[in-house]
Design a protein that fits this description.
197 residues, alpha/beta, 6 strands, 7 helices, single chain, 6-stranded mixed sheet
């Protein structure tokens, strides 16, 4: 039996647009982000219909941050489901950028050039002051995923998606930290094999 997991990144925020590191900061969706979330709901409904999937067979889970919860509500509305009937999972919160949340990479390069050089050299293992590395995030998500069974629809973050690719696909690739994660696309894993819808 194939396990199916859909992943949707939250819609755009003003900090995304400005290139600011959000992490645990609760930055709301902007108008573009709300439209992206609505469109992803329509796209997921189309995928379910095309593949003959029953939404009732999926657990819907989201990060606790407002931008992910609003995205999930809009996605579920697009499926014709109760927008509020999903589980909030604390472990799906974004990777913590610690003291660098709210800053751009240009800010870090100017204010902390040694840390910026380390990010360029090995972003996957870089540990921000008061934050966490992608290695730590992947460990957190692997622990959570091991407690789950069955099919899932996940709404989380760009960092979480990168780490989930490492965990689910068994990829030992530090370059995943640089993977671009669109906010207007849906990714699906069928067991360990992933692709964009």
């Amino acid at each position: 039996m194939t396990r199916t997991i859909f992943h949707i990144r939250h819609g755009q925020t003003d900090w995304n647009l400005a290139g600011r590191l959000q992490g645990s900061q609760d930055i709301p969706l902007n108008a573009t982000g709300r439209a992206q979330a609505d469109a992803n709901g329509v796209a997921l409904a189309r995928a379910f219909a095309t593949e003959g999937l029953d939404p009732a067979g999926f657990a819907f889970v989201a990060s606790p941050l407002g931008r992910t919860r609003e995205t999930m509500r809009r996605v579920r509305a697009g499926l014709g489901l109760d927008p509020e009937a999903f589980e909030v999972v604390h472990d799906l919160r974004e990777v913590s950028f610690g003291a660098y949340e709210g800053k751009t990479y240009d800010d870090i390069a100017r204010e902390a050039p040694a840390d910026y050089d380390e990010i360029v050299r090995d972003k996957w293992r870089f540990l921000p002051p008061e934050g966490e590395s992608y290695v730590m995030l992947a460990d957190r998500l692997a622990g959570w995923l091991a407690t789950t069974t069955g099919d899932l629809v996940i709404v989380s973050h760009g960092g979480c998606f990168r780490a989930l690719r490492s965990v689910i696909e068994g990829l030992d690739d530090p370059e995943l930290a640089h993977l671009l994660v669109p906010q207007d696309r849906i990714f699906v894993w069928r067991d360990r094999h992933g692709s964009w819808l």
